[in-house]
Amino acid sequence: MARLEDLVHGRSPLTGQHIHRIQELVADWQLLADLSFADLVLWVPLRKDFKSWPTGYVAVAHIRPTTAATIFSHDVIGDEIEWGSKPLIDQALSHGEIIRDSEPELDGEIMIKVETVPVIFESQVIAVISRHRSAESMRTPSRLELNYREIAHKLYAMVCEATFPYPGAHEYLDPAPRVGDGLIRLDVNGVTSFASPNARSAYNRLGWDNDLEGFNLGEISEKLNKNNHDADDHGLRSRLSGKNLQRAECENDGGTIDLIVLPLLAKGDRIGAIVLIQNVTELRRRERVIVTKDVTIKEIHHRVKNNLQTVSALLRLQARRIEDPSASAALDEAVRRIASIALVHETLSTSSEASVAFDQVLDSLITHALDLSPRMSELKITRTGEISSLDPRIATPLALVITELIHNALEHGLATKGSGLHITINRSSKDCVIEVSDDGVGLPSDFDFNTSSNLGLQIVRTLTENELKGSIELKSTQNSTVAKLTFPL
């Protein structure tokens, strides 16, 4: 579908501000189509400047009503018409006024009534709305249809007066309830003059047994609102007075309804308001379930972290009681590995995201490794690059792998020679490459990574291949040893 800017580029004097205004109108005009039971087409005049007579128009937007059958079987966006072929559009553009008193015309087998509305912005007619509806459906309108159409006429007048769409409306109308979900009309004092059947049903479910008409909607809503105690709430009575564009919720044990208040203006004066209503009971229930699940998951991670720390403490106690140095060292290594896993769970327990901020974990692993090294004051570990967020299923084995690589370098490579260890990270959209290099003694000449009996390296190889689905290689030169880990994201 062609963009509005492309349709008018080089053929219209519309500025960026004009185009933005049209886009704001198109974002909110489903309300206009539904209230008037009509298809709406937006036409932009084709001309050199605002003083020139247009050669024609191009259709830049088209919306169908959800409250009635559409008139058009296909979209008309991109269609062009010549000046004079649609006199009603020409009149709206020339006079800057709504053209309503037109006779229905036969279009195929249907009598269509067309009305046109100038879109005015900064005292200029920048576009024209043509409204198309079936003349047959207008003969015996119900009270609901009469109210909807009367409200639509007032909103179209606001378009002509440049007061609709409302400034900043996207903050209140996203997501926007549909007219069919429920509509209430207020007079200038906030008293209900009309309520659609769905609107009455919504308030009935909240416990209001009387009719809404003749009652102040704000007072009713304040009485019914029991569970929603927002610290920023200035009172439903004030919010539902109809004086300003507002969004509010009314909630009690019977359910939750979302209300959007749209003031109606005429020549700058407030003449009433409409309130769009949507029953969001099930939506709020699901949101609460999600929040509860998130809190539960975080609590689980917190308890897992605490349990792992308890296990570490028990192993440290046991290591102190063992006289065999090799057995004590094995328990210390187990403590270190458990601590790596605990760091991941600690990060998840405090994060607002479902992923792990792994750079934070990596910094903690580096600090922990230095604290455990007997040469802590001499050693220096640096890092280049960032990993950013990772899925917990990747973060846990990766933390263990990096812990083993750092510990292996500190224990063997830097034990007697060298003082520097550097971690280099290169992450792309597809994979991540991590290199852990040191300036120590290097690997033995007969070293074979695949057959090494070193438990730490066996853990690295197993986790890399089975959990990370990646690969690892160790390379040694006269001045350094590099462990290169590659895994897909």
TrEMBL record:
Catalysed reactions, semicolon-separated: ATP + protein L-histidine = ADP + protein N-phospho-L-histidine
Enzyme Commission numbers on file: 2.7.13.3
Tagged with keyword Kinase: yes
InterPro entries membership: H_kinase_PdtaS_GAF_sf (IPR038424), HATPase_C_sf (IPR036890), HATPase_dom (IPR003594), His_kinase_dom (IPR005467), PdtaS_GAF (IPR022066), Sig_transdc_His_kin_sub2_dim/P (IPR011495)
Pfam family name, one: HisKA_2
Domain of life: Bacteria
Keywords: ATP-binding, Kinase, Nucleotide-binding, Phosphoprotein, Transferase
Coiled coil: none
All residue ranges annotated as the Histidine kinase domain in the record: 299-489
GO molecular function, one term: ATP binding
Gene3D superfamilies: GAF domain, Histidine kinase-like ATPase, C-terminal domain, PAS domain
PANTHER family from the UniProt entry: ETHYLENE RESPONSE SENSOR PROTEIN (PTHR41523:SF8), TWO-COMPONENT SYSTEM SENSOR PROTEIN (PTHR41523)
Annotated protein name in UniProt: histidine kinase
